[in-house]
## 1
Amino acid sequence: MQSHPFVLGANFQGGETIVAYPYDSLRRSAGYQHGDPEDEPQVVADESLFRWLAVSYASTHLSMVQNLHGSCQGDTPSGGHGIVNRAKWKPITGSMNDFSYLHTNCFELSIFLGCDKFPHQSELAQEWEKNREAMIIFMEQVHRGIRGIVKDQQGNAIANATVSVEGINHDVTTGLSTQDSSPPPPSATEINEVEINDNNGNDDHHDYNITPDNHYNSHNAKVHHTLVRLVAHRDGAVLDTWRFHGLHPGL
């Protein structure tokens, strides 16, 4: 995970029909002692994005959101929406989902495919049909967000640079390929500022809007009729080495 900068992941399980998103652990506050009342689960900075990703799978699964009359265990943890925060449902410690979010750029979910953990061979074709479209739609979410290449003033790519988006308390870093992907919240139409830190004491701030358009210019790259307008500046000078492109999650 740390050698390859994945941005989206899922693990498939059984025993329930639901999509669970992080945090998976309760992540108790500092000073908590055994016997104290349980804390409310901490919420990830990107909860709206995680919920969007979870809904993208659950809503296109053929039966997940039809589970309105109780889950496999008799309750209704998802409220009929097919998604749940794992820490509020069945918290676990040391999950891959939490590790991926806290230590890599990857957003990972747990997808519970059905009540039967070990379906019979004769049922596999039906299970595939239930999940096929949902898997495709989920993988397509990797194209949403903002992507770019971090370069120095000489045009050389910079690895391990930190990318911070204003309003989201969760940074991402560029990998060995030097490309980062920073998805905005599902409702975002404008992000005021992105800060780039090459971890050598050099910071850049980048202002841009995500707007529909049909043309290019030196700071624009069009993808599926969505344009990102970028102005990068350092000490008042506009840099021409930045070109971002992305998709608005509402389109």
## 2
Amino acid sequence: MEFCEGGDLNQYILSRRPDPATNKSFMLQLTSAIAFLHKNHIVHRDLKPDNILITEKSGAPVLKVADFGLSKVCAGLTARGKEGGNDNKNVNVNKYWLSSACGSDFYMAPEVWEGHYTAKADIFALGIIIWAMIERITFIDAETKKELLGTYIKQGTEIVPVGEALLENPKMELHIPQKRRTSMSEGIKQLLKDMAKRCRVLQLGLFTRDLQSP
């Protein structure tokens, strides 16, 4: 296994001053990595800063997506997500439905909490990571007491994962805390807006489906 001397994304980002160029590079690397996985019908299912390692052997930091213990290879599934179907190599990975609720709470999409999701759940986790990285939003992990990058909803004195909060109330307005104001590009702002909009539309669809279930 390759040694990544830069540590994980938490360690790297939180031990350095904010750098827009680094943020941009990491965004591009992360999106490229997830696109590669999905192109090869692999759903990671546990994307989080702890599982993103960094090597600096080439001078510039290079991200490595790690820990595929919960990953799902979908090439042997049918488009409806049933085992033993035809090998649909040309089927979009987002056509495969998964049901095992797994991952790390603060990065799980609402549909993962519900147990009915596709590879798009990786994109939700990616959005949480990118948002937290840009704004340097952190929380203290209850078990390890470590400071971790992660976006959340504030409910009174409690912090709640975004996905869990949206599952409980699909119509809630997102007031995600910003640790500090930054100068974000229009592209990044649009990414975050699209992510929030997708969550609302998705959850309304799940709610409607539940009402229609026998």
